[in-house]
Amino acid sequence: MQRLLKAKNYISLYNFIVDGKRKGKVEENMTQIERAHYIHEPRLDTILMVENAIKESGSYPTKKELLESLPKKIQYQTFKRILSYLESSNKIMFDSRKIIWIFPDNPKLKSLLETSVKLKI
Questions:
Q1: Full 3-state SS string of the chain
Q2: Res 34: pLDDT
Q3: Which parts of the chain have pLDDT scores under 50?
Q4: Burial class (CB in 10 A: 0-12, 13-18, 19+), 97
Q5: d(Cα 50, Cα 103) in Å, to the nearest integer?
Q6: By the 8 A CB rule, do 69 and 53 touch?
Q7: What is the spatial distance between Cα 56 and Cα 62, in angstroms, rounded to a whole number?
Q8: Does pTM surpass 0.70?
Q9: Cβ-based neighbour number of residue 41 at 10 Å
Q10: Sign, CA torsion 102/105/107/113
Q11: Of 4, 18, 26, 71, which has the fewest Cβ atoms less than 10 A away?
């Protein structure tokens, strides 16, 4: 991978946007403005790492505390994209500056739901 990064004709598999149009590869002559609109999709292991950090935290962390507590360093742009995804999938919510895990994956809650009486409508 290191050798590929140093290569002159390096092509990335990620997408970027130029003038509102999605392009398929990064070209050598990209301008600085084009690089600023570069879209980076987080990997699944990174998303799971952030999820686990939120679930396992004793208190509800702020964005800065959570980012600093992660076992691996990630870019802030990627971090914000992960938090946006988690919020849109109803796994977290923001209470002023704090992050709250709201997804019902608690084992006690699962057992209560399994043993509860089902209502017929």
A1: CHHHHHCCCCCCCCCEEECCEEECCCCCCCCHHHHHCECCCCCHHHHHHHHHHHHHCCCCCEHHHHHHHCCCCCCHHHHHHHHHHHHHCCCEEEECCEEEECCCCCHHHHHHHHHCCCCCC
A2: 59
A3: 1-19
A4: exposed
A5: 14
A6: yes
A7: 14
A8: no
A9: 12
A10: positive
A11: 71
The first and second tokens of residue 39, run together, are: 């879209």
Tokens of 105: 């994956």
**Residue 9, both tokens:** 């004709």
pLDDT of residue 10: 38
Inter-CA distances, 85 with 3, 25, 47, Å: 33, 24, 9
Backbone angles phi, psi at 93, to 5 degrees: -145, 160
- Amino acid sitting at position 48: L
Query: Comparing C-alpha atoms, which of 81, 48, 83 is closest to residue 65?
Result: 83
* Cα(101)–Cα(110) distance, integer angstroms: 16
- Report the C-alpha gap between 113 and 46 in whole angstroms: 30
